[in-house]
Amino acid sequence: MSPKQIPMSAVDRAWLRMDSPQNPMMICGVWTLERPLSMSRFRHTLEERFLCFDRFRQRVIDTGDRAYWQDDPLFDLDNHLHRIALPGKADKAELQKLVSDMNSTSLDFRQPLWQMHYIDNYGDGGALLIRIHHCIADGISLVRVMLSLTDKTPEPRLGKVARKRRSKHRQRSTVQNFLHRAVDSAEAATNQAKLFIQSVREEPNYPLKLATTASGVALDLLKLGLAPVEPKTGLKEPLSGRKQVAWAEPLDLAEVKACAKALGGTINDALLCTVTLALQRHFKAHRETIPECGIRVAVPFNLRPLDQPIETLGNRFGLVLVTLPVEIRDPLMCFRQVQENMNRLKRSYQAQVTYSLLDIFGRGPDVIERRALDLLSNKASAVLTNVPGPKEPLYLAGSKVTQPMFWVPQSGSIGIGMSILSYAGTVQFGITVDKAIHADPDAVMSYFRESFEALSHAALAGRQDAIERKAS
Questions:
Q1: Which among 57, 71, 256, 274 could disulfide-bond with 3, CB atoms 3.0 to 4.6 Å apart, if both were Cys?
Q2: What is the pLDDT of residue 465?
């Protein structure tokens, strides 16, 4: 008797089908560790706290018109957990080369779609390289899963060890069954509008009242479709599929907060402005004409309630297109424009629109999704994620996590991914760049720090001038 097959959600299936040789749909992370791990203790941690999630024991069965989750009858942890060592100096450069190589290599679809590599000779401790396919869950959900492997002290309390949890497959509603039949019919193309409205109305996280929001949703859908393609720059090139990964030394979160407060904005505004100024420095270094209309980045927007149980995996986020005003050279004016762009997006339904579009694409033919993906990916130069992490340092199997970093996959013709993660009073920043794109990831990392220092200096100087004017 073959194992039971559980239908994959339409949105997860959409991410599954985005996988390509140029852009494998993997979320990739690296944790550097203060001291070496005990492999027996780490294996026990995985068995108790990671493999309790069904998805990590299940493989994908793709029949072409449907995709399913199925328990892997031959599941073996040794197929997913590997112990390796770095060559040469075993320094940061060698670790970045390894992560770049693994970030360019697809996962084995014959097995559950995740891999971990423990590097036992990095620094005085080690490093953990993690790769998980995007169809399993989104970044917010996977960060929560990975954090569940950690403890607040080197020796966990007995109550910390997670109990075995089994996620229950949610039964489809009558309306969802109708939607599946509608997509299967020959009239699916004429039903796209109805599918979209129904998908938006069913989303439990954002119950839209059609009477008051239909015009706003329609307007944002129209804006998304009519948005011009990205200007031609060196950031948009045909992709090779080989990635280059780098990460910066962390910023002090207190300094970022002080900068944001002085500017009257949020931490997110300050970090997006820093990214903008870093890309501006990249264009200058390459003597490239800076687009007068700025460039756009696709930013994931969480649609998952923060109190939702950790057992709930899957993808629950939309994408918003954020314009980065790289043409504005003055740091303070650049910040104001970034702040205005973000405030405008917060009032829009763009995240819900893109989530619902993914739901529709996941139900329809692959060729339609590919065409839509090409269309949407031409409207952004990069993917940028910003995920809040824990405020206190964490320990993995007794070893302190000194620096966590992760990268989300790019899709379609997008070849750059940038990630921001807060952790224990610091802000981590990393980038992955396709080798065909003429951008040095290590140089961009240095531009990021230089740009933050310039923005912070301008912010604090501006606040001092305001205080002096008020005093006089």
A1: 71
A2: 58
